[in-house]
Amino acid sequence: MLLSDRVVPVGGGTQGVGAAVARAAAREGATVTVTGRRPEPGPALAAEIGREYVAADVPDVDSARASGRAVGGVTRDVTKGEVRRWTAYVDRHGRRGAPGTTVDIISSSEVGGRPYLAPYVAATARLAGLTRNAAHAHRFDRIRINGLDVGWTDTEGEDATQRVFHAADDGRRERAAKALPMGKLAQVDEIADLVVLLLSARSGVVTGSVIDWDQNVPGGLD
């Protein structure tokens, strides 16, 4: 019960890594709110884990801020054209100095990425920088902010991307896994376990860290 005293809103929590984090946080005793823009899986997941679902479409700034207020005083501090993300910026109507922690799911692509992913790489690199900057800005508020640079992960969204843009077939997962150092794609449950650790007091005072969650080493050359 690592999170028995925590309120945990999970942005993008309706599928993939977000859904796994919601399940893991609930299992560890957190009061979880699942947020996301997909109305079909959201309420079903919330019902499965016995928690609440709040609809939120992050590009819609008013929707994002409303969902933040609905889950207890933490809001998305976003404006159009900025990186769309959950931050640990404290709502002006909330309590500065109240301890808390945020974990941003970023991407290992932020350190360079594939040639055809330039816009995505730029966005994720901005998010990594924003994670460190927000951690620095809020350290004396006792708000810890960390991130995970996640590598190639087995999710519903990744499967759809591979099928639509790369003509992948039903054997894609197995072939991809065999080509990776550990013989498998990253698994959402494994990522969720680390997120829970970073959200909990077990991670101590660590803040401003962007952790490589990948089986390839940045800068390593064969």
Keywords for this structure?
222 residues, alpha/beta, 3-stranded parallel β-sheet, 7 helices, 14% strand
Please outline what is shown here:
The chain is 36% helix and 14% strand.
Q: Could you walk me through the main structural features you see in this protein, from its secondary elements to its overall organization?
A:
The chain has a single domain (7-151, 186-213), classed as Rossmann fold, CATH 3.40.50.720. The chain has helices spanning 16-27, 41-49, 61-70, 118-137, 156-166, 172-178, 188-199, and strands at 7-10, 31-36, 52-55, 100-105, 143-150, 210-213. By secondary structure, the protein is of the alpha/beta class. 36% of the residues lie in helices and 14% in strands. The protein is built from seven helices and six strands. The N and C termini lie far apart (42 Å). α1 packs across α7 (188-199). A three-stranded parallel β-sheet has the order 1-2-3, sandwiched between helices. Strands 4-5-6 form a three-stranded parallel β-sheet, sandwiched between helices.
